[in-house]
Amino acid sequence: MTFNARRLNKEDLDLPCQELAIYLLGKVLVRKLEDDTILKGRIVETESYLGGEDKASHSFNGRRTSSNEPMYMPVGTCYVYFTYGMYHCFNISSRESGAAVLLRALEPFQGVEIMEKFRSNRNKSKQAVRKKIKTSKLCDGPSKLCISFDITKENPIKSI
């Protein structure tokens, strides 16, 4: 699979939250690991968290904490949050204060074997480790996406 693409700039992301969520669909997330391995996946599902009035948002009612502070940072700020004490989720701040887009799912197409390894290493069940994970299931949820791309709070994607 080849693409004629360019790296997104912060200016490309300067959109209202709902528009940014739509704009990101079809874009490619690229991660270069320390060993120079490249992981790529097409963004196929996003979710917008509108901030202040959105009850599902961490910044509902103007709530501001150290955990949700990136939602108030400049447009295009990439951040990872830890949820339920066990899952990481990757987000990008949008134009509105306290609003962000969650990357929910990717269609992986480069570095799939490495993504499978990350997922298998995370899986506690020995039976599940022996069973190959379908490529279509590698990144079909926000935490699976982070596991497959080795994205954690300690090991985030540093820029868009």
Automatic annotation (TrEMBL):
Keyword Transmembrane helix applies: no
Molecular-function GO terms, alphabetical: alkylbase DNA N-glycosylase activity; DNA binding
InterPro entries linked: Formyl_transferase-like_C_sf, MPG, MPG_sf
Coiled-coil region(s): none
Catalysed reaction, written as an equation: Hydrolysis of alkylated DNA, releasing 3-methyladenine, 3-methylguanine, 7-methylguanine and 7-methyladenine
Entry superkingdom: Eukaryota
Keyword Acyltransferase recorded: no
Family label: Belongs to the DNA glycosylase MPG family.
Name used for this protein in its record: DNA-3-methyladenine glycosylase II
